[in-house]
Amino acid sequence: VVSQGVSTVYAAGPHAVLVEIEGVIQPDTARFLARAIDKASEDRARLLIIILDTPGGLLDSTRDMVASMLASTIPIVVYVSPQGARAASAGTFITAAAHIAAMAPISNIGAATPVGAGGDLPDTLESKGKQDVAALLRSIAEKRGRNAAALEATVMEAIAYSASEALENGIIDVIAPDLDSLLTQLHGTIVQLEGGEVVLETEGLEVIRIERTILEGILGFLSNSTVV
Questions:
Q1: At what angle do helices 27-42 and 59-70 cross, to 10 degrees?
Q2: Each residue of 32-68: pLDDT tens digit?
Q3: What does pLDDT average to over the chain?
Q4: For residue 212, what pLDDT is reported?
Q5: pLDDT tens digit string along 131-187?
Q6: What is the DSSP string of the chain?
Q7: Residue 135's Cα: distance from chain center in Å?
């Protein structure tokens, strides 16, 4: 997934921060992302890269993650990777909320219709749930300049898109086979932050990985629905 240039050592100079989020989205995932955003901002990283591979997860945790991303003072890139990865359900919201959304070839995004813990919701609750999360996704699309109709269809019609379809429909910005290719393509890209425009300088940029702490790993294991 990542290039050989990625390290876990603190960088004093220009660098990007990378985190990997895989598996079910739950409270510990949201806390980990919030910590990573804060750390990247404090260290004056040029951008934060989230490598994402998820089947979905809890709506409350997803909302927390989206809120953290929208409030970020540095550019955030979500990269659905490696090949074969997915940004299903909750992953759709997280990807859409990034300043730049990228996918590896042979990956997919979508199928974001809400379901209950036991499966499909009763008709009335399903309708309310769809309208609620569809409104959230439209708001994210408007904020990030993405195709609101195509994203809304992932909720209302449970549509999923391949990487090439997502690019054609204005859901993502870049398709890249690996991290090095992604950084090369992003060089010179203009990102709109709350404080103004930023031009990304990513060619040859050092990438520093933030790992989960032991406690975060334990909490994630214990909150996993399969373990419970």
A1: 10
A2: 999 999 999 999 999 999 999 999 999 999 999 999 9
A3: 89
A4: 86
A5: 999 999 999 999 999 999 999 999 999 999 999 999 999 999 999 999 999 999 999
A6: ---TTEESS--SSSEEEEEEEES-B-HHHHHHHHHHHHHHHHTT-SEEEEEEEB--B-HHHHHHHHHHHHT-SS-EEEEE-STT-EEETHHHHHHHTSSEEEE-SS-EEE-----BTTBSPPHHHHHHHHHHHHHHHHHHHHHHT--HHHHHHHHHS--EEEHHHHHHTTS-SEE-SSHHHHHHHHTT-EEEETTEEEE---TT-EEEE-PPPHHHHHHHHHH-TTT-
A7: 18
For residue 154, give the nearest of 91, 82, 80 by alpha carbon.
91
Q: What string of DSSP letters covers 122-153?
A: PHHHHHHHHHHHHHHHHHHHHHHT--HHHHHH
∠ at Cα 66 (19, 137), nearest 5°?
A: 130
Name the pTM for this structure.
Answer: 0.89
